[in-house]
Design goal:
This protein is mainly α. The chain is built from 20 helices and no strands. The chain starts with 13 loop residues before the first helix and ends with a helix.
Length: 527
């Protein structure tokens, strides 16, 4: 819990007048889009398919709350930390090569994760998968930008964004089916045959593209950006266990601040910066980046909590829990195709605001209905969540990508994915940490010490105590419901903040990529 490029409805203006005439259409462009979507689907599926397997992982590998978060965040940590580097390298050496290499590494990491028998090995395998995803995911969007011309690109990217969202929503269903019939490792093993098919198809039909004037990679900028992102996310993961004022968290935040400051100074002075930091003066870039972070913060954090609520409180099996999240996929499938036309009529900023407001309403419905312990509020909430996501994700990504020249499509796509993955990692860390803290504070002081470690551990102790454990089970359930409510409501408020940012900061329409060739023209056009 990542993602439409270009204007949603091309309008004649000065920028588009300077754009080059459309080239001949690629004869296999829609088949290529199918390969790109298959590659994207397996990556986005992986995050939510894992959430359903968490209770089984906790039981089989005896994972602590911190280890659970590391298993989930190890992928996002490496993925987000290396995205900008991967995008820059792909722009220089070839985006098809980045796609093929990413698929290979992702597949090998999935195989290793499926066969592991310890928490450290699983966390390492997830990190290796993140390395593959860092090259794979931005390559799909960058290749799409080069294969499709301006008039067809909105439709193609709406499909691309819809597949990304469907991968997120389909994860619990597939994960539940696999965990119910096999074991938790099957949620990783299922990636392998899909990766093999995608590799063969990409090798056969996907064309190569790269920057014609690509400079040598900015290694110093890559290192500094990776340090900043990794330090920030690691600090957030440690907050629930150690607190905001612990040495680990404070030192991590200091490292983030220093490395980010040095990164900006370096990029300003570098002859060939990885990211033109003058884009920070662009309302389009700043607004779209903020929206991407806030959207994925809300979505990923809420999904992390909700999948546990369905199984641990409502008592559904992994498959039953996955099936009951299926309405979100249906809602996304209905809303995504309509998003480009809606944004063309009302503007990207209003489309983003409407989508995030609907998403916020869905999270609020889920949070307020948590203490009822019924499925109906969940069904209503996830339908609203799916509709909001389907409306918002396309114009949000379009606004960010249109800030970059077409030759920088790899870096632009990587920036889009970085913002969303960073938001997802922070969402799991912060909302997951908030849920853990609220759960502990909601328990009576008289409960056994082990019951405060996690809701699952409390229910295990209560089960072992037999009839005498009824009081502990009721107290733990009430505390967990309260924790879910708090985290989902905070997620709702965050999504609402994203709606306000989108409405106020974003421009009504994204700028056409083909009409913007350098940073100076970007700044001029945005003003």
């Amino acid at each position: 819990m990542s993602e439409v490029v270009n204007e949603l409805s091309p309008q004649p203006d000065a920028a588009s007048a300077r754009a080059p005439l459309p080239q001949a259409r690629h004869p296999r462009r829609w088949l290529i889009l199918g390969v790109l979507c298959l590659s994207l689907f397996v990556v986005t599926l992986d995050n939510t398919v894992l959430n359903v397997a968490i209770p089984s992982l906790v039981e089989d590998l005896s994972l602590s709350t911190s280890q659970v978060q590391w298993v989930v965040d190890a992928y996002s940590l490496v993925f987000a930390g290396l995205l900008l580097t991967a995008g820059s390298v792909s722009d220089r050496f070839g985006r098809r090569r980045g796609l093929l290499g990413g698929l290979l590494v992702f597949g090998l990491g999935s195989l290793a994760a499926a066969l592991t028998t310890s928490a450290p090995a699983l966390i390492a395998a997830r990190g290796f998968m993140g390395l593959g995803g860092a090259f794979l995911m931005p390559a799909t969007l960058a290749i799409l930008v080069h294969v499709f011309e301006v008039d067809e690109r909105p439709r193609a990217i709406a499909i691309w964004g819809g597949v990304s969202a469907l991968g997120v929503s389909a994860g619990p269903v597939l994960g539940g089916l696999l965990v119910d019939h096999f074991w938790w490792g099957s949620v990783f093993l299922v990636n392998v045959p899909v990766v093999v098919v995608a590799l063969l198809a990409a090798w056969t039909i996907v064309p190569e593209s790269r920057r014609s004037d690509a400079p040598r990679p900015d290694l110093v900028g890559a290192l500094l950006s990776s340090i900043a992102i990794v330090a920030l996310v690691r600090s957030m993961i440690e907050v629930p266990e150690q607190g905001w004022l612990s040495a680990t968290v404070v030192s991590g935040l200091l490292v983030t601040a220093v490395s980010l400051s040095v990164f900006v100074l370096w990029e300003l002075r570098a002859d060939h910066p990885m990211v033109p930091v003058t884009l920070l003066r662009s309302r389009q870039f700043v607004g779209a980046s903020s929206v991407g972070v806030l959207l994925m913060f809300s979505l990923a954090g809420a999904t992390f909590v909700l999948t546990q609520f369905l199984q641990m409180t409502l008592g559904y099996s992994p498959l039953e829990a996955g099936v009951r999240t299926l309405p979100v996929a249906v809602a996304i499938a209905l809303a995504s195709p309509l998003s480009p036309g809606f944004a063309a009529r009302v503007g990207n900023n209003r489309a983003v605001a409407v989508g995030l407001t609907v998403l916020a309403a869905g999270l609020a419905t889920l949070g307020l209905g948590a203490n009822r312990e019924q499925y109906l509020p969940v069904a209503v909430g996830i339908v609203l969540l799916g509709l909001g996501l389907g409306i918002a994700i396309a114009p949000a990504s379009a606004s960010l990508m249109s800030s970059f020249p077409r030759d920088h499509a790899g870096v632009g796509s990587a920036m889009n994915d970085t913002m969303q993955e960073l938001g997802a990692a922070l969402g799991v860390a912060v909302l997951g940490g908030l849920a853990a803290a609220a759960y502990r504070s909601g328990l009576p002081t008289s409960v056994p010490a082990g019951a405060t470690a996690s809701y699952g551990e409390a229910m295990r102790i209560a089960h072992e105590e037999g009839p005498a454990g009824t009081g502990l089970a009721d107290a733990a359930r009430g505390a967990f419901d309260l924790a879910v409510q708090h985290s989902l409501l905070v997620g709702s408020l965050t999504a609402l903040l994203g709606a306000i940012v989108g409405l106020v900061i974003l421009r009504g329409r994204a700028l056409p990529i083909d009409g913007v060739r350098d940073v100076a023209s970007i700044r001029s056009a945005v003003r």
